[in-house]
Amino acid sequence: MPPEGERSAADIVSHVCWTLSAVSMKIADDLGIKINSEQEPTNDFIEGLNLEIDSAYNIFGNLVRGMSDDDLERTTTLPPPARIREGSIERVLRIMAGYHVVHHAGQIAHIIKRAKRDID
To answer: According to the model, what pLDDT value does residue 1 have?
Structure first.
């Protein structure tokens, strides 16, 4: 369990998946790339988390496979609460699919390290 007021590792994973999916779907919609984003529901917590991860990266992968090099230079806009409101598709994807994911991976690693320390 996370300390009071902090997000759990699962909450952070869900946040990353939702953000990557939302940004990818927005860009795909702008470019006219059709992506199936449906996933099978499950009542199993771990299976559900795995499905969220798989879905987010499948959406991202389908976006990238459907894009041309020229698309990377096109401008896109993101609605609030995105901190990046406008930029080239390349810049937005680099930040949201790269830096954002790595930032939260570091948070998750820290949470797991702290949890292991608390168990020992």
So the answer is: 66
Contacts of 37 (CB under 8 A, 6+ apart): 21, 25, 55, 59
Nearest to 48 by CA among 21, 19, 11: 11
Tokens 């997000």 sit on residue: 7
CA 15 to chain centre: 7
**Could you tell me the pLDDT band of residue 3, with boundaries at 50, 70 and 90?**
low
Per-residue model confidence (pLDDT) at position 38: 83
Write the burial class of residue 112 (CB in 10 Å: 0-12 exposed, 13-18 middle, 19+ buried). Answer: exposed
Token readout for 114 is: 């702290």
The domain defined by 9-119 folds into Four Helix Bundle (Hemerythrin (Met), subunit A) (1.20.120)
Is the pLDDT at 81 greater than 90, yes or no? no
The confidence score (pLDDT) of residue 87 equals 95
